[in-house]
Amino acid sequence: MALAKLTESGEVQVTRPWARPQVYETWLLLLAENDQRAIRQAMNAAISDRDVVRAQYIVCRPGQGDEWFDVYESAYEAMNRDYAMAAKFIGLILWEVMQSRQEQWYFHKIDKTIVDEHNLIEDIQVVEYFRAATLPQALQSRITLS
């Protein structure tokens, strides 16, 4: 099946097969094949139980903030223990996993603003995936496949 983008107006834009960016190919070379396979298996197992997916939903331990499950430690190590780079790397792996799923999924980018007690604001772009079969009925009625 396809991975399709949901626009703000509720339209669907079907994505084309992904040409891996060179930087992603380079990062993959830093990660042992067994670690790549373990990460993909963990992602697929977590996705199977969800209708809405964000990387943080499947990578982070529930109630533990930004603490990742152990299987993702190898991606962190491959990125020289740089949390931001490892998060981008894991996001790219998740994108590829979502594209290879058998069922239909939609995605959209959302802005997430975090405000802490020091009044600092950080804008974060997050990709959120939705299983097509479980989209809210109101949203499904606005979607027209082209």
* Domain module tally: 1
DSSP strand content: 15-25%
> Major sheet: size, sense and barrel closure?
5 strands, mixed
Which overall shape is indicated by the principal axes computed on the Cα atoms? globular
- Please tally the β strands and state the result: 5
Low-confidence stretches: 117-122, 141-146
What is the mean pLDDT? 81
Query: How large, in whole angstroms, is the Cα Rg?
Result: 16 Å
Q: What structural category arises from helix and sheet content?
A: alpha+beta
The number of helices is: 6
Report the order of strands and helices.
Answer: EEHHEHHHEEH
Quote the distance from N terminus to C terminus: 15 Å
Helix percent reads 25-40%
The strand line-up of the biggest sheet is 2-1-4-5-3
Describe the structure in brief.
The chain contains 6 helices and 5 strands; from the N terminus they run E-E-H-H-E-H-H-H-E-E-H. With 146 residues, the chain is of the alpha+beta class.
Explain what the structure shows.
With 146 residues, this protein is α+β, with helices and mostly antiparallel strands. It has one domain (3-142). Helix content is 40%, strand content 21%. The chain has 6 helices and 5 strands. The protein has helices at 22-29, 33-48, 55-59, 73-78, 83-99, 137-142; strands spanning 3-6, 12-14, 52-53, 105-115, 121-131. A 5-stranded mixed β-sheet has the order 2-1-4-5-3. Strand 1 and strand 2 (12-14) form a beta hairpin. Helix 2 (33-48) packs across helix 5. The radius of gyration is 16 Å and the shape is globular. 17% of the residues are buried. Residues 117-122 and 141-146 have low confidence and may be disordered.
